[in-house]
Design goal:
The chain has four helices and no strands. The chain is mostly helical. It is elongated, with a radius of gyration of 20 Å.
Length: 117
């Protein structure tokens, strides 16, 4: 085993790539905000939880791209974690936008029903 393999085995996941850790943190925070709907606490004020999830997702995407770029210079360190942050950020943003469109459709449908009566 050469020295690069030994040093790679000793390094923690994304050890020097701090942007990958930040991207993963924001992606997990976005998922945590959406997971609060399963516990019931988010139903007290759902707009706040969806907005916070969107904010975290929007923060996870660019930091993930920065981490992927840094990972190229750091011999691939943290690139997988950064990719997970990017994908989770985009998927969370997509789910939040679908929830927002569903809410707007509900409000528009109720407005049509009220106008017809």
């Amino acid at each position: 085993m050469n020295t690069t393999d030994e040093s790679r085995a000793e390094r923690p996941l994304a050890g020097r790539n701090g942007a990958a850790k930040v991207s993963a943190f924001f992606a997990l925070a976005a998922l945590a905000f959406l997971a609060n709907f399963a516990t019931g606490i988010a139903w007290l004020n759902p707009g706040v939880f969806v907005a916070l999830a969107m904010l975290c997702a929007v923060a996870a995407i660019p930091t993930g791209h920065i981490a992927r770029f840094r990972g190229r210079r750091l011999d691939g360190e943290g690139r997988g974690l950064a990719l997970a942050g990017i994908l989770t950020g985009w998927l969370t943003l997509f789910v939040c936008l679908l929830a927002l469109l569903a809410f707007l459709g509900l409000v528009a449908g109720l407005a049509v029903l009220v106008d017809n009566t």
